[in-house]
Amino acid sequence: MNEGWIDPVIFSLGPLQVRWYGAMYVLGFLVGGAILKYLANKKFWPLTKEDIDKYITMLIVGMFLGARLFYIFLYNWEYYSVNLMDIFAVWKGGLSFHGAVFGMCMATWMFAKKHNLHFFQIADSMAVAGSQGLFFGRMGNFINGELYGRVTDSWVGVVFPGAGPFPRHPSQLYEAILEGIVLFLILFAVHKRERFYGVVSSTFLLGYGVFRFIVEFFREPDSQLGYYFGYFTMGQILCFLMLPAAFLMLMYAKKLNIKNPLITR
User: Fold this and answer.
1) pTM of the predicted model as reported, rounded to 2 decimal places
2) Which residues pair with 149 in a beta bridge?
3) Are the CB atoms for 197 and 259 separated by under 8 Å?
4) Rounded to 5°, angle at Cα 133 from 128 and 136
């Protein structure tokens, strides 16, 4: 670890280590739970406050499974196909955000079906409450010195431990600001003004796709994948696919015409 760099371990108790990365995820879920309770008070969350804890538990499971499986099969199958036991070695890292979104969407769909609600009625709340978690997650990446950016001679450059002697873009911070703060503020404003369920979810998909696509130009691509078509990363390809999906979702939401009780027009 470079001298002066933030120690990723908060404290140790024998072999047990409490790390900033894990703490950031816990913080994100705690803040997300508080926002869900706010939405429940405003009647935007269509169920009781007691259902929130059950939903968050399902989200955590779905997020982890989706993030892990996407990383294994889309980002690094060449390695895991000959190291099958490492599929379970989650402490070595290897998670995909796009997979996490997919896993949380599946958990949301199952939760909504169980309560006889439409997916959008739960997903809109998840988008508002969960988007801020991107800020904490990317801050965890920054402290870990992982998912760093490309080499730069700009004043914003940071020398990351284990990434060589040259300054690099702190792309984790770019994502934390754009995806975790700006996108959250956009979604919070939209949920107060839009009368149809599904619009907030569509806005999240569109906003994340655009912001992540832009940041990928500054982020170092995965070493085992490199560039596709000589220019684009796997992250950009997945984000590009999110854009038409967002527009299709928006049209479907308008067609469903499920009203948001917060808005009267």
Assistant:
1) 0.84
2) 219
3) yes
4) 150
Element containing residue 9 per DSSP (H, E): strand 9-13
Can you name the residues that pair with 219 across neighbouring β-strands? 149
**Cα 132 to Cα 79, 148, 189, distances in angstroms:** 33, 20, 14
Retrieve residue 192's tokens. 């107060």
| Long-range contacts at 79-88 (CB < 8 A, ≥ 24 apart) | 79/224
Tell me how far apart the alpha carbons of residues 145 and 8 are, in angstroms, rounded to a whole number.
9
Residues in the chain: 265
Q: How do the pLDDT tens digits run along the chain, 265 residues long?
A: 444 578 888 888 777 777 887 888 889 989 999 999 999 998 899 898 889 999 999 998 998 889 888 888 877 777 787 777 777 766 566 777 778 889 999 999 999 999 999 999 999 999 999 999 999 989 998 998 888 999 999 999 999 988 889 999 999 999 999 999 999 999 999 998 888 899 999 999 999 999 999 999 999 887 667 777 778 888 899 899 999 999 999 999 989 988 876 665 4
Instruction: Tell me the torsion sign for CA atoms 7, 13, 15, 19.
Output: negative
**14: which residues sit within 8 A by CB, 6+ positions away?**
none
146 in Cβ contact with 106 (< 8 Å): no
* Burial (CB count <10 Å: 0-12, 13-18, 19+), residue 88: exposed
Cα–Cα distances in angstroms (integers) from residue 99 to residues 3, 63, 67, 209, in the given order:
34, 7, 4, 14
**Inter-residue contact 201 to 101 (CB < 8 Å):** no
Rg (CA), the chain: 19
Terminal-to-terminal C-alpha distance of the chain = 57
